[in-house]
Design brief:
The chain is mainly alpha-helical and 225 residues long. 58% of the residues lie in helices and 5% in strands. It has 2 domains: 164 residues, no CATH class; 40 residues, no CATH class. Strand 3 and strand 4 form a beta hairpin. It starts with a helix and ends in a 9-residue tail after the last helix. Bound molecules: zinc ion (ZN) (2 copies). The site of one zinc ion has 6 residues, from loops. One zinc ion binds next to loops.
Length: 225
């Protein structure tokens, strides 16, 4: 394994370390859960399973690359440029990813956290990942914050570990919420991240439900299958 391959694993390793730390603190708090706490722990772990499954689907599903048939029925084919990297005719909304060295259909962005491009075929899993990760971070923060309220810091070492877990989950919650809000806004405008930054506004915009169906599949928008 060379240095570049190790570097690719760095974001994934950071995520695993954060989850392991937050889980250890959760086990420490709920070493003997009772009543409502059991329901809280079960719900939390169902959400965490949804995060892990969405992560797996996002990183292992190919984002979609153009086939010849994608441009045959494209009335704008004659106006499209040929990709200067892989020499294929680009269908509408297709972009070349330099990290993957491929043209990606309706490319959104290349995501180092899942080590994959986000495009037409895996955007739904990516959105589910951000959605469930946001909910999970809210639950983590609520649990640690309640623990601090019930047992105000006494100066013992364990309280500082819990305060750190609360701070970490609060930061994650804010960052993920902003990211979720940004992507919800993009879907509602039928826009990709690339199109947003290239200022291609309202190019493909339809009604709200059609926009969500186009990006997340018809119905079952938040089920990552
Ligand atoms: Zn290309
Ligand atoms: Zn890529």
């Amino acid at each position: 394994m060379n240095f570049n391959q190790l570097w690719v694993l760095a974001p994934f390793s950071i995520v695993i370390l954060i989850i392991v730390y937050l889980e250890i603190m959760l086990i420490y708090i709920f070493i003997n859960p009772e009543g409502k706490e059991i329901i809280q722990v079960v719900l939390h772990h169902l959400l965490l399973l949804a995060v892990i499954f969405s992560f797996y689907k996002t990183s292992t599903t190919k984002p979609g690359t153009p086939k010849q048939t994608d441009t045959e029925n494209d009335s704008l084919t004659n106006q499209r440029k040929t990709c200067k990297f892989c020499y294929n005719t680009k269908p509408i909304r297709c972009h070349h990813c330099r990290q993957c060295n491929k043209c990606i259909l309706r490319m959104d962005h290349h995501c180092p956290w899942v080590n994959n491009c986000i495009g037409q075929d895996n955007y739904k899993y990516f959105f589910c990942l951000v959605f469930y990760a946001t909910l999970t971070s809210v639950v983590y923060f609520t649990i640690y914050f309640n623990k601090i309220l019930k047992n105000p810091p006494t100066g013992s070492v364990d309280t500082y570990f819990i305060i750190f877990a609360a701070t970490l989950s609060f930061t994650l919650m804010i960052v993920l919420f902003l990211f979720l809000a940004f992507h919800t806004k993009l879907i509602s405008n039928n826009q990709t991240t690339l199109e947003y930054f290239e200022k291609q506004r309202e190019h493909y915009d339809k009604d709200l439900v059609s926009n969500f169906n186009e990006f997340l599949g018809p119905g079952c928008w938040l089920i990552p299958i």
